[in-house]
Every structure is written in C-alpha cells, then in structure tokens.
Amino acid sequence: MRDGSMPGDRSAHWRWIGGASLPTVGGWRINATEFFAELLLDPSMLELRLRGPLVRLTRAETLRVGPTDLAEVFLIRSRLRFRGVGFRRTDGREYYFKTAQTDTILRALRDFGFPVSTIAQPAAKLWRLKP
User: Fold this and answer.
1) I need a labelling partner for 91 at 20 to 30 A (CA). Which of 10, 25, 65, 115 fits?
2) Closest Cα partner for 64 from 85, 31, 42?
3) CB under 8 Å to 124, separation ≥6 — which residues?
4) Rounded to whole angstroms, what are the CA distances from 89 to 12, 20, 33, 95, 131?
5) Residues whose CB is less than 8 angstroms from the CB of residue 21 and which lie 6 or more positions away in sequence, other chains included
6) pLDDT band at 56 (very low <50, low <70, confident <90, very high)
C-alpha cells in the first residue's frame, strides 16, 4: 500500500509487491518470482508490471487498464501452490499476480469499479504458451 489509506478511499493509491505470470510480446509467458512484480492501483487505472532486472531481460507485457478494459478479475488458487489474483482482458489475454494479500486487493479493485468475480478459478494459462 503506497499511502496508508484503507479500501474504499476513492483518492487512494495502492502498491503491492509480489510475483507474476505475464504474456510476452513473442507469445510466450514469463514467470517472475516474489519481489519481481508490482501491482499499482488508483481509482482509474490498474498496472501490473515487472520490476528489477527482469524488465530489461524479458519482453513481458505490462498490464495497464481501467475498469472497463477488463472482462474479469478473479481469485486464483491452484494445486501448484499458486495463489493470487488473475486479470482477464476483454480480448482473452490473462495476467496473474502472485500474492497472499488477495482479499485486500480484490476489495480495493471492487471498490474502484473493476469487474471482480466471486468465483475462484485456476491459473489456466500459467504454463501454456498461449498468452
């Protein structure tokens, strides 16, 4: 969290550090371990990006969207110990943020008008070559 405010505060700016699984420009996926991804949120924009040396070494896509650009935001729980938040764009591309702070993130996203699902889903594209 960047400014210490609580969910529901429409002027808040949030920041979480975790891991990620992101599509790349070439059609592959990059899996970044904890501390190498950053999720930023303000009332009008969500951004999921890599940080550190992975930014220069990969061609991972940054997810930068508003509430209407996403088809769904969902909780991820998988058998492979992957826990986090999934983001599905309206074109079907999926981005995953690995974190244990799922409840806080989903509550903040819901408060800001993002389409948050109440149904947990698997990270279906985690190991596939399709973005």
Assistant:
1) 10
2) 42
3) 94
4) 23, 16, 22, 8, 11
5) 29, 30, 31, 32, 82, 95, 96, 98, 123, 125, 126
6) low
Backbone angles phi, psi at 22, to 5 degrees: -125, 145
Among residues 52, 23, 39, which one has the least CA distance to residue 129? Answer: 23
Does pLDDT of 68 surpass 90? yes
pLDDT in tens, 24-39: 887 788 888 888 999 9
**CA 112 to chain centroid:** 15
Q: Residue 33 is encoded by which pair of tokens?
A: 């371990």
Q: Taking the model in full, what pTM does it have?
A: 0.84
Q: Which residues contact 88 (CB under 8 A, 6 or more apart)?
A: 70, 71, 72, 73, 74, 94
pLDDT confidence bin for 54, thresholds 50/70/90: low
Residue 4 has what pLDDT? 44
Counting beta carbons within 10 angstroms of the beta carbon of residue 3, is it exposed (0 to 12), middle (13 to 18) or buried (19 or more)?
Answer: exposed
Pairing between strand 70-77 and 29-42?
unpaired
